[in-house]
Amino acid sequence: MSETGRAPRSAAAAPGELPPGQHLVDTPVVMHYGRVPERDPEAWTVTIGGATATGAEHVFPIQEVLRLPTVTEVGDMHCATRWTAQGITWTGVRAVDVAALAPPAPGVTTALVFAEFGYAANVPLQDLLTATALLATHMDGEPLAPERGAPLRLVIPHLYTWKGPKWLRGWNYLLPEDPDRGFWEERGYHPRGDAWREERYAHQG
């Protein structure tokens, strides 16, 4: 799990600064692919598979995930459609702590993070394992609403929001030779999606 806790690019930004090409909105826009799921949150599970250290797929009840240390952080949301909402308070558990329950095998570079209805996003392992990446359960002190991603959504503040799926169900660790790509990556979006480098589209390298 190399580069765990690596400081994201946004840590160097001045207060109130926006990533290039973004404009400020007061409230995050509700956007998602597909409908809002109707499932019992108590029956929710998080699955970590792919190239795990043991080679096995691990399925964790949400109650086990939420027994991990709870943290609260302030982070912005940057959408590739060019809006940014600043100063959102997120509460949840760190992705790096969840990953510790089922670590990656040596050589893993990427995680295919997946959600309900087959949505998925490629996330570089170094970004998933930053200290600021959360599996969020609350937003601005209130439990996530279903349309905001309850019971779990991935939040990685320095990446565009498509890299942080709502209704998170887990991830598969990928080795460099694994071909899997996420929903928007298949449609020409950037493999990393760093908002501060304006990495919107794959043709940007």
Write a structural description.
The chain has 205 residues and is mostly beta strands. It has one domain (43-111, 124-204): Sulfite Oxidase, Chain A, domain 2 (Alpha-Beta Complex), CATH 3.90.420.10. It contains three helices and eleven strands. It has helices at 62-65, 95-101, 125-128; strands at 23-24, 45-50, 58-61, 70-78, 83-94, 110-115, 120-124, 134-139, 142-143, 153-155, 168-174. Strand 6 and strand 7 form a beta hairpin. The two termini are 25 Å apart.
Structural class: mainly beta
Total of DSSP H or I helical runs spanning 4+ residues = 3
Sketch the topology as an H/E string, one letter per element.
Answer: EEEHEEHEEHEEEE
CATH architecture: Alpha-Beta Complex
Tell me the Rg in angstroms: 16 Å
Q: Which residues sit in consecutive blocks of at least 5 with pLDDT less than 50?
A: 1-12
Which CATH top level class fits? Alpha Beta
Provide the domain count: 1
The CATH topology assignment is: Sulfite Oxidase, Chain A, domain 2
Structure summary, number of beta strands: 11
Distance N to C terminus: 25 Å
Q: Report the principal-axis shape.
A: globular
- The averaged pLDDT comes out at 89
* Secondary structure: helix percent: under 10%
Sheet of most strands: 6 strands, mixed
Strand content: 25-35%
CATH superfamily: Oxidoreductase, molybdopterin-binding domain
